[in-house]
Every structure is written in structure tokens, then in C-alpha cells.
Protein 1
Amino acid sequence: PALCREHALSPHSGAMRGIPGMNRNESDTNFSKMTLSRMPPGSNLGQIVEASNEVSHHSLTKVICTVGVKSRSVEELVALLEAGMNVARFDFSWGSMAYHQKTLENLRVAMKKTKILCATMLDTRGPEIGIQLAPDDISSFDAEAPKEPVVLEQGSRVTLTTDTRVKPSSDFLPVNNDLMPKFVRPGDDVFIGQYLFTGSESSSVYLKVDEVDEALGHIYCTCVNSAKLSGVLLTVQVSNKGDDLPTLCEWDVHVIKHWGVPNQIDFISLSFTPDAAAVEECRAIVREAGAPGMMIMAKVERLAALTKIDEIIAAADGVILSRGNLGIDVAPEKVFLCQKMVLYKCNVAGKPVVVTRVVDTMTDTPRPTRAEATDVANAVLDGADAIMLGAETLRGMFGPETVSTVRRISREAEKVFDHENHYQLQIPQSQLLNKGLLPQNEALASSAVRAASKVGAAMIVVFTRSGQTARLVSKYRPSVPIVSLVIPRIKQDSIRWTLQGEQAARQGLINRGVVPLLANPTNSDMTALLRVVFDHAKRNGTLKEGDQVVVIQKVGTTSVVKVVQMNF
């Protein structure tokens, strides 16, 4: 069932077979009619092919941007926020804490200027192996960056060495991991590419290992293709090797404790997550450091992780499917199957799932390829909560345009997403996981989505303290925005008053359709709070006079789902 849903478009699936006895061409036609039937009333072919004039950040699917280098100043971050960035990702594979701190401070200024909420994510380095071509905090655009690339020719020999004092050249490439010669063997395949590589064969190289000398720390290789290695940092991956390396290195633990926790970062992206134990190890470190609310997103980027995907999903708060690294471990023809399987399992579990590496060419061009545009749409149809951008926003020349483009494509895909089919699939799966019954909060969430569909509601509003109910509503994929109205708690200790709830609000920014708002903690009048939501929605064009709104709230000790008609 994970790979045979309608949106898998498998020629052997029920969605493509149509009715018994129907041939392939008739079945394709039938599916096209089904898809077109989900277009808005009055749509025709001319309307379908016309460019959309909708506001880009009205898509339900979220966008995560890697920030720094070309997306670091207040002005650049303002542009990303206005284009539709929901989560800012700080990747500690490169850059010092001081470097990222400045970017974070600029992001906070940009949020105040735009009044746009943005969550933050710390991406760990993990067991990633690198080749440093420039000093710390030097980017490709700085004067101190290397002027000439490292040129490798097909068939030539190159030695990977653990001696980091050696200058990178076409003969020697120094790696930053002393353990590499211990697990690499002759015949292994090694991939080397620019940090956040875009897949261009001119800037990445595949090596075949010929010989390993553990005593000297040398790995002798032959180049499979010609390449010009440029940039300031190269990443190294050995296909299906290195799974025993520690998931969190000393640098990661230091960054989490001394940068992530003090800055109240919302998410940790746990690179190269191998199993549930690694997630629990990271969670223990975060709790010990005093940030139990920080969410752990397991980054699935190795074949070994796929074999333990069920336990990883159960342990983590969400999953990031890192297709760049995964594509090196997995045969190309199997990557799409891995994506559909992981996204399906996360959808059933109600965990947010993120897809990476979708519009790589927009690092250098203002428009994606046809294949990339289709890839974004398919990720949305497969059930992705968010799309993560890497090099496109970190060092790309068209960051805001990339965010806006991904938003527009996502919105078009959402128009033909089979919400009814998704809803019907979720209910029995959730019951199977709970002995035939739905938990109370999930029963409320699913009922709200069903009610919204039946009355044609324009919005669902959820009163919540932790954001959990709103995330459960997102699990059932309504076709309308989910306003998560977080009611903060005022907590007092012997020294000061603190407001709890801001992080819960921001964390909703990774779930499809969730629009978090933080309520005034001094106002407990539900009617007044609803009026604030309605006024806000009217100003941004989400609601108009006469629209129906579904509300989930508590009345005394009873949780209720009700339908309210908009009357301004």
C-alpha cells in the first residue's frame, strides 16, 4: 500500500488500471479525467496552462531555506521571508558559531521588519567527511577563496590522506576523518563534490579505491570521471560505508549546548541518523542542556537508515529525506520508491516529512528545469510537508525567486491533491495502530477535517497550548489553512516571569497547512481571540464575508468541534 497509492502513478496500481478490461491508454485517459475533475469549477485547458497569479506564499506546503553567504544580510533575509521562507536552516557542516550567530541576529531583525514568523533549524555535521579548501568562515565569494579549482582527469590517480597539513591538489586530497582508512576497502566507490553539491559532473568526481595504507593514512584511488573541484569545502561519501561512525561528533554536541539551546532553536536536523538510538541520544543531550521542547528531525541519507525507518519515524519528531546523499547509496531507479515509502510512513504516523534537492539548477539560473518543476509537484502529491532548499539559497544568485517558484509549483500541485483519498487512507491506519480506536485528540482532528470538507470551510482554527492538535489536523491534509492559535503560559520562578508557547507556535511552521499565531496571554476570551484571527484572515484575503470556519476548542473540560459563519 505504501507504493501503490493513486499518486504513485504505478502502471500496476488500481489508480492506473481503472475498471476491469480497460486497456492502458483508456486507463491513462481515465486518470487524466480524474485529475482534471479536481481542478476548481470552471477550469479549462486554457486556464490550466496559464501562469498562476496567486500570492506565492499561500501554498500549504512549507519551504525551508539554508541561510548564510548569499542569504545573510538583513535585506537578503527580508527578501526570503517575503518570498515565503518558513524555516531558516543553519548548517554547521561549514561556518563557526560566531558566523551563524550574526546570521541569526540578522534574521531576527528581518522578522521584526516584516512581521513574518520564521522557525530555526540547526543542522549537525555528524560523521560527514570533508576536504577543506579554505580557512574557516571564508566563502566562495570572498577574496581569500581559492582562485583555481583542483583539476582531476579521468583515469588519473589521486591519494586521499588523513594528513590535513597537506595542501589540496590533483595528487593529494586531505580528509578530516582519521577513521576513513579503517573502513574503506579496495573496490569501494567514493564520491567527492562541492559542499551542498548540485549534481553537476563538472564539479564532482567519482573515485574507485585501488589500495589502502592504514599505517600512512593513505587511500589510493582512480578517477572515474574528469572534474574541476571548486569552492571552499568538499564533502566525501563512501557508498554504503561508514555507518559505524558516531552520529554526533564533539563539534555537534558543543554547538547544540552552546549555540542551539541559548538561542532557543526550534529544530535539530540530525545528520546521517542510523537508528532510533541516535535520536534518543540527541534528545538526551538536548534535555540535559535544558531545552526539552526542541524537536529532533531525523535526517535519512544512508541505505542503512532505510532498513530501520519504522523505528526512526517512531523515535523522531519528523524526518528529512536527504536525497542527495541517499542517491549515492541507492540505485537511481530506486530513489523514487524510497521517497514514496518514507513519505507514506510519515504521513500515517502524523510526523512532518521534508524532501530535499529539488531545484538544484536554480543555484545558477532563475528558472527550474521541467524535470525539477515536476519533481517539486510530485513531492507535494506524495505527501511532503515541506521542501528544503540548500545551495539554491545558501550561495545561489536567485534565492527569493527560488522560494517563490517552489511555492507556486506547490500550490498548483495542492489543487489536484486527492484530499479525500488521503483522509480515507489515514483513518483505518490510525485505528490499526490503536487497537481499532482513535485517540480523543485525533478523533477531534479528523472530525474537524471532515466537517471542513462537508461545509466547504475556508479555514480551520485550533485553540492549542502545545500545537499538537494542529499537527494532527495537518496529518489529515485538509485543503484549507489550519490556524494554530497557541495559548501561551506565563510561568514564574523565584527570579522572573517567562512566556511559554512561542517555540510551540514556531514549530508548527514545518507542518503542511499550519499557520501559527501566538495569542495574547492576558486575554482568555475565546470569542475575542477568534475575532482577532478572523480580522487577520480578512486583511490577508484568506476569509471573506459569509465564509464558514471550523473551530476546535475547549469549553470547560469538554473539547468541541463547531462551525462558525464569518460575519464582519
Protein 2
Amino acid sequence: MSGLSAAMETADAQPTSPSSFPKPTNNLVSPLLTDLYQITMAYAYWKTNQHNRPAHFELFFRKNPFGGSYTLFAGLDEVLKFLSNFRFSDDDIQFLRNTPQLCHCEDAFFDEYLANLDCSEVIVHALKEGSMAFPRVPLITVTAPLGIGNLIETTLLTLVNFPSLVATNACRMVVAARGQFWEETAGASPPRSNKKNGDVPAHGTPPDRGNFKSPSTPRMSIQMTEGGLSDFTRRKPKCVEFGLRRAQGPDGGFSASKYSHVGGFHATSNVLAGKILDMPIAGTHAHSFVQSYTSLGLVEGAKLKRLTQTGIGGDGKEGDDDMVELLPLVTKYRDELGWLDTNEGEMAAFIGYAVSFPNSFLCLIDTYDTLQSGLRNFILVSLALNDLGYTPRGIRLDSGDLSYLSLECEYMFHEMGDRYQRPFFYDLEIVASNDINESVLHSLNKQGHAITMFGIGTNLVTCQGQPALGCVYKLVEIDGEPRIKLSDDIEKVLIPGRKVAYRLFGEAGWPLLDLLVGRNETDQPATGERV
């Protein structure tokens, strides 16, 4: 063993005033967010004077989710907020006193024990938030009097189970989205064609419409196009969380937004998560926005301030204060390219969006006909925007064969970039959504695609591949004596006693495995020595 590290850190959950330690993000997180049997056991411990016995608990899971080889630990921040603010309110105690299961309990249990209970004697050890974790290695250990250690069990599990599951799901999707292909060919942005400028028509040259037709056979992947891997350098795709509307309620949606970010997602569409968590937010428009525009007459007179004198060859300085109507510029390019059959309502929608968001113009192009209308309308409006000094952002695909469509869009962008000498065409985002999951991402990598960003919703936030992580919270020591739970199911047999987790590293610096050692064992691992 060339290196090791203690896998856990200490956090004392000392009582604090509300102003000195944040409260749980969700107001539902309180001592009553627990299962009834935690409270009935607490009464039995108190009744028999067992509640102050020193105890040690471990929170861990038995199997990695999604058939994988790792889990990301998440939720520690909310655990510490919960423990630091743990107090039963007067209303909580009154409610418990009147429940049928507890109404016979002695008043002193409520008035003396629960009313004064906090986590001042609780000591927590935990992995760092976002750490990679493995089965049976404790994510959190709790050293506490038996009564309070028992009362916090359910709450800790609900604050760790789903966050760790969705963070792991997100991480797996980020890895799948990048894929081995992207690792091998990723390079500086923007991608470039290897065509020579002398072979490209100059701006204003009458078009040969044959140059802009989609080929009869799809391009299977960038490796198979002319020029092979040297044709383009590529960006690694990013992932954005789109799942709020499909999540299991507001709590599930917010938690998914938060912990998908821990798993490597770049941004979220959830505006509230952006506000509370200071996360990047992302979004464009829906199909309904495009459908609502029915004719070009709806955007006649829609104007935008010119930033440069021309889109190409300008001096980059602020132009005149004149406002320029966008529609005539768009129709000029439509006539020039001969694209007279695109949907005019869609074109109007794109113009309306462009004058509203000229610096972040990214359009959903599959409302009617992705390649023959949506893509072309986006190009026409983008050229007009660029004439005024703005840089369009990209497109989104929400249906169809994402591999084929993304490659066709990229091909057309590069043709337009070469034809009009507009560099922005080489750096446009191609965002894809539409029921994407991990297997779809792997499939797209095998087929080849030109997608630069994935918007993932339902299958991320609902954890389609596995609905729960299965963390457990077990008593492993009391009064300094190890405790064991036996079972006919061998995987449920508890490893007794308090343990220390070490992560072993090889000579190259890569982690090899996690080692659990009894805390009282004399032969503890040492850095630089073999185990």
C-alpha cells in the first residue's frame, strides 16, 4: 500500500441558535419527520432508564445502485442542519401526548425528556459530501446516547437515501454522456472544417441549392465522415436537469435539482433551485410557443438595436442608436437561399424569440419539420441576428432520431459557416432531450452524434433504473460492547463493533479499495506500508 486516507471526518452536532446555523431547507424536516416506532422505542428506553446508555450507530448500504460499481454520497449538509436544529416544539409534544399509541405514557417523558432533548451529545463522523462510496462502508456514524441516537434514525435515512441515489444516477449519466469517444476526440472549441477557404463561396455569391440538400444516406458518426477524426475537434457534452414537472412532487423535484448538481450536472431548469442554491439555470421555449405564432404578420415591426454596422467585417463598436426590423433581414436570406417552403408561423416565433433574447437565442426546432423547416428557420434568423452583431446560441431537438438529426444539423451549420464565413456556426449548441436515460446515452455514443448538451428529466429525477438506494441505520455497539444482528439472509448479517474506514491507494495514486478495520484493533494501517 503506497498510500491511505481515513475516509471519514468528524462533525460534532452541537446545539446552536437558529441564527448561527441554517435550518433545514425543507420545513418538513423536524423531529416528527420520523416513524412512530422510533418514538415508542424512545419511551421504552426512557421508561426502563436505558436512554442514556452510550451507543454507536452506522448508516450504510449493502449494494451499489443501478448494477454499478460505486455510489456518490450526498445529503450530509441537510443532516447537519437537522441535527443542529433538533428540538421538539410545544405543538409537537402536545400532538404526541394525544396520539392513541402514546396517550398512556407518563407526563415526565414529554415534559422533562422530549421537551429538553437536543443533539448536544451527538457526534457524527461522515464521508465528505460527493465522495465515492462502496457497500458496507459507513457513510455516517453516530455516537450518541441510545435514546436520541434511536430517534434520529428515520430522518437521517430519508435525508441520505434519495440524495445519494439521484447524485449517483446523475454521475452515471454524465459519464455516459461524455463516453469514450468524447474522451478520445475532445479538443478546443469551436470545431472546424478542414475545407480550405478558397473552396468556399464568398458571402453574397448566388447559391447552388444542390450544396445545401441533406444527403440521401445519414452520416453515421464523425469518425466515418470524410477526413475522419481530423475533421473536427469536439466539446464534451454537458448535462442539464429538466425533471421538475415529472418528479415525485415539489420535494423530489427540488432534491433532484440539488443533488444532480453534486453528480456533475451543469445546470437545472428549476428556477427555485437556482434561487435557493445559487445554481445555474437553463431553458428556452416550448412547442406551444412556436404553435402560438400563426403568421409573419405577428412580428412585423419587431425591431432590435444594431450593435455593429455589419455582422461580418464590422469594427466591433457600438452602432447607431437605430432600431432595425428583423423580418426583412430574415426574408432576404430566405430568398437568397431559396428556402421558401419553411413554416412561416415557426419563423415568426423564432423572430419573436430573437428580438426578446438576442444574446441567448436557442430554439426548439422540431415542432413541424426538423430539417426542412425548423433548422432552416433557425439559420435564417441567426444570420439576421448576426448581421446586427449578436451571436446565436443554438438549437434543441426533442424528438426523432437524435443521432441522425444532430449530425445533419451540425453538417448544415458547417456548410453555412463556410459559405457565409460566420464563425458562430461552428460553435452552436445542439441540445437534445426526449426521454433520455443512461442506455440511450450509450447508444448515441455507439451510433455517433453531434450533441453538445443533454437535457435529462424523467429518467434522472425518478431514478428509473432503481427506485431506492436501500441505506440502513444499525446499532453496532452499546456500552463499548459490539452488537450483532443475525439473519438467514447472509447479506443482512451485521458486522459488529465500531469500525474505521481507510481508502487504499496504489503507486500510481489511484484508489484500489476501502478497508474496514475495528476501531480497537492494534494493527491499524499506516501510510506507505503494505497491509
